[in-house]
UniProtKB/TrEMBL annotation:
SMART domains: HTH_LACI
Protein name according to UniProt: LacI family transcriptional regulator
Biological classification of the source: Bacteria, Bacillati, Bacillota, Bacilli, Bacillales
Species for this entry: Sporosarcina luteola
Superkingdom classification of source: Bacteria
Domain HTH lacI-type span(s) in chain numbering: 2-58
Cell membrane found in the keyword field: no
Length: 341
């Protein structure tokens, strides 16, 4: 049986240091590199600090005890207040409930350092994790060694793990295609960036790709990174109209319905008509989109289905203990034509 003393000797630190790391004792600081070495020794030597952990460690002789508990890493507010993520959350929770699983909300701090998430896996006895909020690549790589993981939405589309998302470039392309089909050749873009860079955002990449394929001019004057703030969409378009001297796009692709709704207000306040003067296409199919005047044409994202698929993907990974394969699943998007075009 592995003891704290054995781990201390392997790492070259005192037993009390090993104990503080394993117990996540914050009363005294421990060098991050020492923490990493301690947890590496824990994993390599098979040390389990309590009976719950012992049951949760895989071995050739012992199967993991089922707890029917799934972790969900997301900002505590988004499941309730963000309509996009709330539908995903409902799909996840209903699917897991039907399978007899409960959902445990995790915080980003739980996965900030390797010692924290290893302790979290042990003490909370979760069988798998659904990730919405981003975690560091290094953390993700280590996390996958301990527990089945599925990423939901854009933060994980380019990572090496199972992911459920939609094709953002294709969605934007569909929006531009629809505007072109309505005779528009001057099309602007209202969106937000990733890590402060609009060019990293896939809906913007899809807009650029479509504009080039249709042979249309890309005018930087009519492209804005709102940083996802609705008021910036509204204020920017209002100012653009005031300074345009009539030189405006006849259509806008917006990276979200809410950004589109804010921009539509600016157009209407300036006495322009939608869609006669300016047409709008959003992306989401937010509940508000059908109730604004005029109703917003949008690319519908099946958020509820994303949640269902993500939950089922994680349950499959949990069941397939010996042969887990990472799969990327993109749900289909659909053009919903309303009065704004």
């Amino acid at each position: 049986m592995v003891r704290l003393k054995d781990i201390a000797e392997r790492v070259g630190v005192s037993i009390s240091t090993v104990s503080r790391v394993i117990q996540n004792d914050s009363s005294r600081n421990v060098n991050p590199e020492i923490k990493r070495k301690v947890w590496m020794a824990v994993k390599e030597m098979g040390y389990t600090p309590n009976e719950n952990a012992r049951r949760l460690v895989y071995s050739s002789e012992e199967k993991k005890r089922q707890t029917k508990r799934i972790g969900w890493l997301a900002n505590p507010r988004i499941a309730n207040e963000n309509p996009y993520f709330s539908k995903i959350f409902i799909g996840i929770s209903e699917t897991l409930n039907k399978a007899g699983y409960s959902l445990l909300l995790l915080h980003s701090d739980d996965l900030e350092e390797e010692n924290q998430f290893q302790r979290m896996v042990r003490e909370k006895e979760i069988e798998g994790i659904l990730l919405v909020d981003p975690v560091r690549k290094e953390t993700l790589a280590e996390l996958k060694k301990w527990i089945p993981v599925v990423g939901v939405d854009f933060n994980y589309s380019d990572h090496s793990l199972s992911v459920v998302d939609y094709d953002r470039e294709e969605a934007a392309w569909k929006g531009v295609e629809h505007l072109v089909s309505k005779g528009h050749t001057r099309i602007g873009f209202i969106g937000g960036g990733v890590d402060g860079d609009l060019h990293l955002e896939k809906r913007f990449k899809g807009y650029l790709k479509a504009m080039r394929e249709f042979g249309l001019e890309i005018n930087e004057k009519f492209i804005v990174d709102t940083e996802w703030y609705l008021e910036r969409s509204y204020e920017w378009l209002k100012m653009t109209i005031e300074q345009s001297d009539g030189d405006l796009p006849t259509g806008f692709l917006c990276a979200s319905d809410l950004l589109a709704i804010a921009a539509m207000r600016a157009v209407q306040e300036k006495g322009l008509s939608i869609p006669d003067d300016v047409a709008f296409v959003g992306i989401d199919n937010n509940d508000l989109a059908q109730y604004v005047v005029p109703a917003l044409t949008t690319i519908s994202i099946p958020q509820y289905e994303m949640g269902v698929v993500a939950a089922k993907a994680l349950l499959n990974l949990i069941a397939e203990e010996s042969d887990r394969i990472d799969l990327k699943t993109f749900v289909a998007t659909e053009l919903i034509i309303r009065k704004s075009t």
